[in-house]
Design brief:
- By secondary structure, this protein is an alpha+beta fold.
- The protein has seven helices and 15 strands.
- Helix 5 packs antiparallel against helix 7.
- The longest helix has 43 residues.
- The two termini are 44 Å apart.
Length: 295
């Protein structure tokens, strides 16, 4: 139904209330309370049936985040939905095409590189959708289930709204699993480990510059065996290069014999042509997770 314009009926440093005039048989009041020294806003919506007959009512609650910024910021922009024990992650490119979700919703988070807006409904929410507005804002909508209101009855719908930094310690303090927005993707466990180590070094040095240097040195130490193995394999292949060159000249008219003797050469000297690549490939996930965490 369409509501008349809202007017402010109460305002203080941390609270504001809006009220609409009755229209189409409903009157609506919205209350917002900011918790002091916190990133949390407690939202409450009161819907009163002022008509003479029972009526069905449901609400749509929206929350958004402005993700304007550089290309890197957009890479981290998107939404995360918690539904029971599942986390559904969708990045901005898919949201631009239109995204919707049908099913139980514990909470929905809009995020960019550093900040998140998380809406946790205190009512039964059965669907959600997200849209991109003017290539700059992610708007997410939560829809409640229908409820019947008799004449004079009021339905109260409450929403817990977090609007702040993406900090593990802060997000974890609410015991709602909000911190999981930091650990998405197939390397989430590696991201979490690196963040724990970074926090440990920061607690020791009290300086993120020194903490990042210490983390980088530790990563280098951990990866030293793989790096050494890669160099050893490449060195062995270089030593065999003259013999391989000779075989290529000898069997340039017979590719099958060339392949056979090359394989025998590898076997005799215990060389692996991929030995220099695999150790480097195994290091890639660590560097990717390190990049994402430090970004």
């Amino acid at each position: 139904f369409t509501l008349s314009p809202f007017v402010v009926t109460h305002q203080s440093d941390f609270e504001i209330t809006f009220q609409s005039d009755p229209i189409n048989g409903f009157a609506v009041r919205k209350e917002y309370k900011i918790r002091e020294a916190s990133f949390v806003i407690d939202c409450a919506i009161y819907i009163t049936n002022v008509s003479a007959a029972p009526a069905q009512v449901a609400i749509e609650f929206s929350a958004g985040i402005n993700y304007l910024g550089d290309k890197l910021n957009k890479q981290f922009s998107g939404i995360v939905i918690k539904s029971y024990n599942d986390f559904i992650t969708t990045k901005i490119n898919k949201i631009k095409k239109g995204f919707s979700f049908d099913g139980h919703i514990d909470w929905i988070a809009n995020e960019d590189k550093y900040f998140a807006v998380i809406a946790k409904p205190q009512f039964s929410a059965l669907s959600a959708r997200s849209i991109d507005v003017n290539d700059s804002i992610i708007n997410s909508y939560i829809y409640s289930s229908d409820s019947t209101l008799n004449n004079g009855e009021t339905a109260k719908k409450e929403i817990f709204l977090y609007t702040g930094l993406k900090l593990d310690a802060v997000l974890s303090s609410y015991n709602e699993g909000f911190q999981n927005i930091l650990y998405t993707g197939f390397l989430w466990w590696l991201n979490k480990l690196i963040l724990i180590l970074l926090s440990f070094f920061y607690g020791f040095f009290k300086n993120y510059g020194f903490a990042i240097i210490a983390l980088t040195v530790l990563a280098k130490i951990v990866l030293t065996p793989l790096t050494h193995q890669s160099f050893q394999s490449m060195k062995k292949m270089q030593e065999l290069h003259p013999q391989m060159k000779a075989l290529q000249e000898k069997h340039k008219e017979n590719p099958q014999q060339l392949n056979k003797e090359v394989m025998e050469l590898y076997k005799k000297h215990k060389a692996n042509p991929l030995g220099g690549c695999w150790p480097m490939l195994l290091q890639l996930p660590i560097f990717i997770a390190l990049y994402k965490t430090l970004s």
